[in-house]
Each structure stands twice: as structure tokens, then as C-alpha cells.
Amino acid sequence: MSDAFERRTGPAGAIGEDAERIVRACQDMAERFRAGGKLLVFGTGGSVADAQHVAVEFAHPVIVGKPALPALALTTDMAVATGIARTQGLDGVFAAQLRLLASPRDIALGLSAGGDCAGVRNGLAAARELGLLTVALTGGRDAAEADHVLAARSDDPLIVKEVHVTMYHVLWELVHVFHELEAVR
């Protein structure tokens, strides 16, 4: 029974060790929001629900007084996703959506618990080509290429997802801190 807790201790504690990297990502994200950018979030499998969770956190904050920031989960429109997949394959869905919807001032946030999802990697690559700020929340393999790679230090996808939930809540909170700091200057 204690093994269930011990397996989570290291990965959860590593978030604090990555504080400087997380802060830099949040500063860059806040800068993009101030410039009129929006957050485009995507992932596959269980990360679909996480992408939608992140988007709603930014677009409709539950904490009174926090501003809504424009965010969209690319995983919510099944007609578009399956239409693109029919002609370009599943691995091209997010890249195609980003090419259609994104502007260079936007932020692309890709989630991959295993770190090796081709669709997420292709989406992040397309976002970089378009000039977006790219942030990847990955698993222990750290396979994604992005401006900011925030990797949960575990190979267990369940633990990775648990760490990702904490990471994206910290991203939300600190982006608002930096966004508000600029507003009072």
C-alpha cells in the first residue's frame, strides 16, 4: 500500500525543482496573452480531457476576480478532428488545426503523458513553424520539442497525468500573477 504513495513522491516533488523553468514558461505565456494571443491546447487519449480542462480554466476562471484569457481546446470539435484525420491521418489533426486557427502571437500547449505522441509532436512542430510560443507537458521520456518542456518525472502514465494536473494549475495561477503584474505597471 505504501508503494502507491512512494511512486508519487519523487515526481510530485520534482515540480518544485522545476520551478524556474515553470516560471519562465508562465512569464512567456503572460506576455503572449498581453499581446492579444490565445492559448490553443491539445492532446490525445486521456489528455483530451486535460486539454479541455486547461482551456476552460483560462477561458472561465473559477476564482472570482481573475480575468478570462482566450483559450481553446483543439480536441472539442469531433467533426473537424475526424474530417482532418480522414484525409491527413490522426497524427496530422492538431498541426492542420493550428495552421488554420493560429497566429504568431498565440501559445500552443501540447499534452502527452508518454511524451511520444506523434500527433502532439507534429502539432508543436507546426506551431513553432508558425511562430507560436510552444509549451509541452510530457511524461518521463521528454520527447517533445518546444520552447518550454515541462516533463513529469515518471514513466507511469497515471502518475504523469496527476503531475500534469498540478502543473497546469500552477501555469494558470502564475500566468495570472504575471499578467496582473504587468497590468499594474
TrEMBL record:
SUPFAM superfamilies given in the database record: SIS domain (SSF53697)
Q: Which domain of life is it from?
A: Bacteria
Boundaries of every SIS domain copy: 29-185
Protein name per UniProt: SIS domain-containing protein
Tell me the organism: Nonomuraea corallina
- Lineage from the top down? Bacteria, Bacillati, Actinomycetota, Actinomycetes, Streptosporangiales
